[in-house]
Design goal:
By secondary structure, the chain is mainly α. Helices cover 60% and strands 8% of the residues. The protein folds into three domains: 91 residues; 60 residues, Helix Hairpins, CATH 1.10.287.990; 106 residues, minor pseudopilin epsh fold (3-Layer(bab) Sandwich). The chain binds manganese (II) ion.
């Protein structure tokens, strides 16, 4: 009995210290990212500084759960501030384009372990830092090579670079949506206009969820499930994508996307993609999805 208690205490202490280290790493990474992108608003940097101090205190042997809760609250606040800062920055840069070959990896909008238990920290690190980065690099390279083709008027390898641009471009854009489409506070159901439209086009939320899950589970090989808004029909639709670009329905806007490539779940779920898909619903970021839907809905084309 006593031994159990001691062991329990030891586990909790190491959990607190692991968490503190995770927070520390995130603060360092975020500070670097903000500085690199010149998003150096004083109050946000101060908040990150405070968080850094708190997480150092939390790494001491006598740290308590209460102190950990306090740090968790500070982390939530810092997230909100950084999100606001990034949104303001996006709005002010809205008319600026990404130069050719200058795509960058967007930072994960939450810590690597924030989506546990649905998606493990190990997967998030690998998936975001390695896989998504390689799509960014591949897209940049394809764009630069096509630019060179234009400059030298040598289009002999164009087909190859176009395919690369489609593959890595779709990978970069879809992963960006994928990270945004999830949240540690996710799950539940959408509200408002998005829910109304889902009910109009799929009868009810349950049948939409069922079709989206089935689409994800039945993707042949690797790919995605996507909820898209079709501006021409003015309806929501569920689509499958094989790999990134096969079966892509152009002229549509992805609203909610689910990565069912093996690298997204295999370390944790092995070949049980269905369990991963079912768990994923607990971390869907519906408010963000609603925002995206409202933005996408502003686009309308003449119906035929
Ligand atoms: Mn992926």
């Amino acid at each position: 009995m006593r031994e159990n208690l001691i062991r329990k205490g030891a586990i909790e202490m190491s959990q607190i210290q692991d968490y503190a280290k995770e927070v520390q790493a995130w603060v360092t990474e975020m500070t670097g990212f903000l500085e690199k992108n010149r998003l150096t608003e004083q109050h946000v940097l101060e908040q990150l500084n405070r968080l850094s101090q708190l997480s150092r205190q939390l790494q001491k042997d006598d740290a308590t759960k209460e102190e950990m809760t306090k740090v968790e609250k500070e982390v939530t606040l810092a997230f909100r501030e950084i999100n606001d800062l990034m949104n303001r920055n996006t709005r002010s840069r809205i008319n600026q384009s990404v130069p050719i070959g200058k795509h960058t990896l967007p930072p994960l909008p939450y810590p690597y372990n924030a989506l546990e238990p649905a998606i493990s920290e190990e997967i998030m690190r690998l998936h975001h830092d390695k896989h998504h980065q390689s799509y960014v690099d591949g897209l940049n390279k394809a764009e630069l090579m096509m630019k060179r083709a234009r400059e030298t008027n040598d289009y002999s390898l164009l087909k190859h670079w176009e395919r690369e641009a489609a593959f890595h471009g779709s990978g970069h854009y879809l992963h960006t949506l994928f990270w945004e489409g999830m949240s540690p506070k996710g799950g539940g159901q959408p509200k408002g206009a998005l829910l109304k439209q889902i009910e109009k086009d799929f009868s009810n939320f349950a049948s939409f969820k069922k079709q989206f899950s089935e689409a994800a589970k039945q993707v042949e090989g690797v790919g995605w499930a996507l909820l898209v808004w079709v501006p021409r029909t003015r309806r929501l639709e569920v689509l499958q994508s094989e790999r990134h670009m096969n079966l892509t329905q152009w002229d549509t806007i992805p609203i909610l996307v689910l990565d069912v490539w093996e690298h997204a779940y295999y370390l944790q779920y092995k070949n049980n993609r269905a369990a991963y898909v079912d768990q994923w619903w607990n971390i869907v970021n519906w408010p963000q999805t609603e925002n995206r839907f409202m933005e996408a809905k502003k686009l309308v084309w003449k119906p035929y």
